[in-house]
Amino acid sequence: MNSPLKLYRQILRAHRLLPNEFRLIGDMYVKQEFRLFKAVTNPDQLSAFNTEWNTYLKTLYLQLGAETQSQHGETASFSDKSDTLGSANQGSLKLGKNLDDEIIQTISHDRAEQLLELNEAVSSVYKNSE
């Protein structure tokens, strides 16, 4: 499993391959989450945090068409950014995924509010770019 600092850096590096508006939102969110989690000492919470962010990173690599990671979790190589994202403007790049129903059912009120705020921020980016 990656150390939190290494994982943080890998996520920010992967975000460089995102369209600018996604990168800005993603970077802000990741920085905020990792800052908040800095003081956590509970091993179970740390493990869950690491697992979820590693899953996010792997999903992001897959969606961006990145080549397979090495066994140490480092990126072996990426496809050329312009090739990978060149079709993003035509809407063929699919990023993100829908939440599973079971996750939605168990989500806390605070987390639901946070997701709504994130949704509003992303929606405003799309409105401003049209």
UniProtKB/TrEMBL annotation:
Record's keyword annotation contains 4Fe-4S = no
Predominant cellular place of this UniProt entry's protein: mitochondrion
List every stretch annotated Disordered: 72-91
Read off the InterPro entries from this record. SDHAF3/Sdh7 (IPR008381)
Q: Name one GO cellular component term.
A: mitochondrial matrix
Q: Alphabetically, which GO biological process terms does the record hold?
A: mitochondrial respiratory chain complex II assembly; succinate metabolic process
Q: In which compartments does the protein localize?
A: Mitochondrion matrix
Q: Quaternary state and partners of this protein?
A: Interacts with the iron-sulfur protein subunit within the SDH catalytic dimer.
Job description of the protein: Plays an essential role in the assembly of succinate dehydrogenase (SDH), an enzyme complex (also referred to as respiratory complex II) that is a component of both the tricarboxylic acid (TCA) cycle and the mitochondrial electron transport chain, and which couples the oxidation of succinate to fumarate with the reduction of ubiquinone (coenzyme Q) to ubiquinol. Promotes maturation of the iron-sulfur protein subunit of the SDH catalytic dimer, protecting it from the deleterious effects of oxidants. May act together with SDHAF1.
What PANTHER family is this protein classified in?
DC11 ACN9 HOMOLOG, SUCCINATE DEHYDROGENASE ASSEMBLY FACTOR 3, MITOCHONDRIAL
Name used for this protein in its record: Succinate dehydrogenase assembly factor 3
The species this protein was found in: Zancudomyces culisetae (Gut fungus)
